[in-house]
Specification:
- The radius of gyration is 18 Å and the shape is globular.
- The chain is mainly alpha-helical and about 170 residues long.
- The chain contains 7 helices and 4 strands, in the order H-E-H-H-E-H-H-H-H-E-E.
- A hairpin with a 4-residue loop joins strand 3 and strand 4.
- Helix 1 packs across helix 3.
Length: about 170
């Protein structure tokens, strides 16, 4: 028996529902996707289908650093780049990423953007490290080449519960 499920790019109307579902699975109050954010999601090709959408949303949530609203600037760079190329070629004028909006937050400086990216990557690394080590702090410390003291300080900094690899 074969079940054909069309690619996500063929089911663009599913994107807002999937986005709400994926964001709703997170602990705590989920951020809200702005209209521009949903529009940007609908303009992307999604070669990785729902798995890529899930990863893009997780990246956006980490990048937004706790703000309550997701904007296109929080999407992974490869998605923003494709949308920008489309906007420039005018094949898809609705893909105008970063257009002025009353609710859109101001752009960060390069230093702020770089630091936010480093912080997001570090947090993701320590969560994955704990998952890889099955919560074994000693193994995680050896793998990361960090002392227990430095490791626990980093977990505290990123609000990661030791032994679980979860935030909260």
């Amino acid at each position: 028996m074969e079940i054909r499920l069309p690619a996500l790019r063929e089911r663009l109307s599913d994107i807002p529902l999937l986005t709400d579902f994926i964001l709703g699975r997170r602990k705590g109050p989920p951020p809200v996707a702005s209209a521009e954010f949903l529009e940007a999601l609908a303009c992307y090709d999604w070669p990785g289908n729902v798995r890529e959408l899930t990863n893009a949303l997780e990246t956006a949530v980490i990048s937004c650093e706790g703000t309550k609203t997701l904007y296109p600037k929080y999407l992974p760079s490869h998605i923003r780049q494709q949308l920008a190329r489309r906007a420039v070629t005018s094949r898809h004028p609705q893909a105008q990423v970063g257009r002025a909006s009353e609710e859109q937050e101001p752009l960060r400086t390069w230093k702020e953007e770089r630091n936010a990216a480093i912080e997001a990557a570090a947090k993701k690394y320590f969560i994955e490290l704990l998952r890889h080590a099955s919560g074994d702090i000693g193994l995680a410390c050896r793998h990361a080449a960090l002392s227990h003291q430095h490791f626990y300080a980093t977990l505290k900094k990123y609000n990661i519960k030791p032994g679980t690899g979860r935030t909260g």
